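User: Run a structure prediction on this.
Assistant: Running it now.
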Amino acid sequence: FRFGYSASASEAVAPALKVHATGKSVLIIGGGIAGLTTAHELEKVGYKTTIVEARTRLGGRNWTWRDGEKVEHRDGQQTVRFAEGDYFNAGPARIPGFHTNLLNYCQNFGVALEPFLYENQNAFFVSPSCQGGQRMRHRHVRYSIQKAIEDVALQGLDHGILTEGLAAEDAAKVRKFLEQRTMSGSEGPFNRSYRGGMVGHLDASLKMPDGLKPIPLAELANSDELGVALSTYDWIEWQTSLMQPVGGMDSIVKAFDRHVKAERRMGTELVGISQNEGVVSCRVRERRNGKEETLTADFCVVTAGLPILAKADLQLSDDHRKAVTEGAKRYEHTSKIAWSAKRRFWELDDGVYGGASSLDGLPMQNWYPSSGYGKKTGVMLGAYTAGPRAAAWNKLSLAEQLETSAGFGRTMHKSFDQDVVAGYNIDWMDQTYSKGGWAWLLRNGEAEDGSPYAVLREPDGRIAFAGDYLSQLSGWQEGAILSAHRAVNAIAAAT
């Protein structure tokens, strides 16, 4: 998938429903991106919608922290203290350029976007078993590896390996192409010896600085996970260009909020769902007073996470109840740490503007903010864990998590301790109405009949399901939107 898709980006668009549903009603359980998308698309053709959301905010895992935000942790609640204008995306933080539906909504709703810098050649990689544990710039590592590969390719030309069976004219073209790629004949700053960095800087002196010598491939191979760390930048979902909404990912939520007419039942938990031949009934409970009531509608779209649904009284078919129970077990541990800094030391001291640094062998990353350059303060991501490592990470206390992340920060940046103000951690398993980051229901061929993914894709009578877990883009907002479109089509077909 590094090579992309053959389909045009314009082929993935919102559903064009051919139904007039005036007077028909839909209950939407969950006010995240899937729920908001569902409400918006159904309202366009006349459905009356009601969103039931257990949180006191919309957006679900699309959650942007600002000063004063309250964050749950099993060790106690944290109160975020950021400088004015600073923010942190605790959930989704980037939008790949091929996530067409999400980008279309941003354009239609007037959500301003800016580049999200993930790969930065000036950021760092550290491995205790490589180069004496010293910081290595990404460019030095990447182009050391690339030079080794290019040299092998040129040697292959010399021995006829890459040109076997080619006419002399075509073989010459291959050689010219590789020589152009390596810039082996160039002088000055375009010489390939400078791709990995320089000893010193370009200045106004008479002599050009020397290029950094490539790190031997055998030395780089001492690292446990350097190959994985570098390959992440090549994964299609993380390739340039990535984008982010100006001012925080919740700009998307605010835009949906402005365009959705649905009645909002905020701070209202789902207790149970049942249906008869013509009506769906949802028992709900208001968090503030414990009052229960029953809401009814012609249809229901359930977008709340499966761990939440599994605790409710669901009068569903046996297959759908089983799918909810099994799917709820598939949710991943995910965690992020945000460090508030009174001085943007990563920029001022190390020249790192955006991008990410990583430490070999630990689930540690620094993501540097892709906005606010030149601003005095900022917020830096100090850890991002997922999967089995995150499960172990989530067994640590809050103090242990913060200290581990701080140790990583000290390794990357000498002034970390003096310039960082405070750190805040979110383990998504601790979040009462999430209980996990995302779920992998579609893996290892588990799309066959009877699997949770296959069952929940289809409505149970008047009840449909939506969420990123019901797409090939689990964990992404685009996946939530795609699944919502499918649920919307199912409701329209049943009307």
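DSSP finds 15 helices and 23 strands in the chain.
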